[in-house]
Amino acid sequence: MESAQAKNSALQGAGALVPTSFEGLEPLIKEVYTNLVEEGVITPIPDFQPPPVPQDLNAAIKAGKVRAPTHIISTICDDRGEEATYAGVRMSSLIESDKGVGDVISLLWFKRSLPSYCTKFIEMCIMLCADHGPCVSGAHNTIVTARAGKDLVSSLVSGLLTIGPRFGGAIDDAARYFKDACDKGLTPYDYVEAMKKKGIRVPGIGHRIKSADNRDKRVELLTNYGRTFFPSVRYLEYALQVEKYTLTKANNLVLNVDGCIGSLFLDLLVSSAMFTQQEIDEIVGIGYLNGLFVLARTIGLIGHTFDQKRLKQPLYRHPWEDVLYTK
Ligand SMILES: CC(=O)SCCNC(=O)CCNC(=O)[C@H](O)C(C)(C)COP(=O)(O)OP(=O)(O)OC[C@H]1O[C@@H](n2cnc3c(N)ncnc32)[C@H](O)[C@@H]1OP(=O)(O)O
To answer: Residue of the nearest CA to atom 1 in ligand 1?
Structure first.
């Protein structure tokens, strides 16, 4: 089956093919509508019928009944009215009902209002990942760039570009792999050893500094929150069992913050009963969850940029004595 996007492109393209007549457009509209519903892009409209096809195109154009073909589809924010709406919710109603950034994320990313224990969890992720000192990859790059005299956006993106599988960008992979292993009923031993055979590091496990003797407070806070407020923390408990096994191999193979957020977000998606299985697979497949770290760390990276500029720091140069020059 062709994707909804391909079908919609066909519809958009169809505008160019009907300069004088709408003939043949009706079944195409219906087909595109059916595909968009099937793929969950739009909610079904009861007794949907394609709009009546005007017989005379010129008359229809004059009457304002014909729209030019669109080149963009957008489903999350509508700015055409008096005020913008996020997934159909007016900005003023968000302010009036004292909603927070977690609610905004739930509307713009997940296209629905999530219960407050979920939006609070999202906000906790943002707060706890906002910064982790000047020495980590992202902050280091941002500091060096700011000290090279670059502007805010350049300094910010140079830090953001370090987010990836080893630094802050393992949340989606952690969610994917933990979900797959847990759903298949693999024991932590079987899962970890299978990953080892494939030569893949277990996403969500391991930390440069943190260890069994130097626990990550972020993981502790998120774990406690999930255990207290989520209807189920099946995936988190599985991830912690995996940690139990990896810790028998090395002391720094702890469940890291990426793994903790990844497994808990799976628990949120599944146990909140707000998402269908197809939607959960799509969220994990597309990779929404690294967005949490990217968004959070943006706050800290902007702070590091301002900090360096405020301190009027000179151009950074790495000391020779800290480089091993070798052939
Ligand atoms: C906010 C954050 O950034 S959290 C980190 C998010 N990233 C991940 O979860 C990805 C998976 N984890 C990793 O890749 C690593 O553990 C890191 C990058 C986080 C930390 O790595 P380091 O402390 O530098 O450990 P190092 O790279 O020296 O690894 C030492 C050995 O431990 C083992 N090891 C480390 N992490 C893992 C892991 N996740 N799974 C299996 N074995 C591992 C490996 O045997 C590794 O040896 P190798 O280099 O031959 O593969």
So the answer is: 168
